[in-house]
Design goal:
Elements: E1 2-6, H1 14-28, E2 33-38, H2 43-50, E3 59-64, H3 69-79, E4 82-87, H4 93-96, E5 102-108, H5 113-130, E6 138-144, H6 153-161, E7 166-168, H7 191-203
Parallel strand pairs: 1-4, 1-5, 2-3, 2-4, 5-6, 6-7
Helix pairs in contact: 1-2, 5-6
Length: 206
């Protein structure tokens, strides 16, 4: 399975989600996983290397560019059960979508409802176009942030749930903290966040 985690900007939990997904698949599901770090200034690579005992025979991380990505991912499929792609916003999501089985898009409460709706509409167009050549592609979205008092939280969630392209995944309990390392390797473990994160990944069929 090829998972793509990508969004239009930094600071929305994209890399944290990619690292946690890779760790979940390898540590919890016992699958062979290749984490691909594209144009992130090695953020995913750094987090993975800092996570204690994360890298082993079932999990590896590599830094790549978009150049020749499709061929390289095809080669990974022969060696690994899953490939998790962490794609930086400056790289083209459109180029990565045709090779993905599942696309996961984080949204953030730090952005306004207008920004989130504009972003959702743009990403819906990308996915819709990619599905012409990649009919197996399915897309998911979730919102990072637990501030129930946020004036736009309800409206943002309603907008995400109303998408005809994305399936909204309930992410309550999954915080941006700890943003600099994986929840799976965080000591002491945040049990609530860990359980919710596992539930999120199961919801996307991971």
């Amino acid at each position: 399975m090829i998972y793509l985690i990508a969004g239009p900007k930094d600071g929305i939990g994209k890399t944290t989600t990619a690292v946690n997904l890779a760790l979940y698949l390898s540590k919890y599901r016992k699958r062979r996983v290749q984490l691909v770090d594209i144009g992130n200034s090695a953020k995913a690579t750094e987090l993975m290397e800092r996570a204690e005992n994360a890298l082993d025979e079932k999990l590896s991380v590599i830094e790549l560019t978009m150049n020749g990505l499709h061929e390289k991912i095809s080669n990974f499929k022969a060696e690994f059960d899953d490939v998790v792609i962490d794609c930086a916003p400056e790289n083209s999501i459109e180029l990565a979508l045709p090779i993905a089985d599942k696309y996961i898009a984080p949204f953030s409460l730090s952005d306004t409802i207008l920004w989130n709706v504009w972003t959702l509409t743009s990403l819906e167009t990308f996915v819709y176009n990619a599905q012409d050549s990649n009919s197996k592609l399915v897309a998911y979205c979730f919102l990072i942030g637990l501030d129930d008092s946020h004036p736009e939280r309800k409206n943002i969630i309603e907008a995400l749930k109303g998408s005809e392209i994305f399936t909204y995944i309930d992410s309550e309990g999954y915080e941006e903290e700890p943003i600099d390392y994986s929840i799976f390797e965080f000591q002491p473990k945040n049990k609530q966040a860990l359980e919710k994160l596992v539930a999120m990944f199961k919801a996307i069929g991971a």
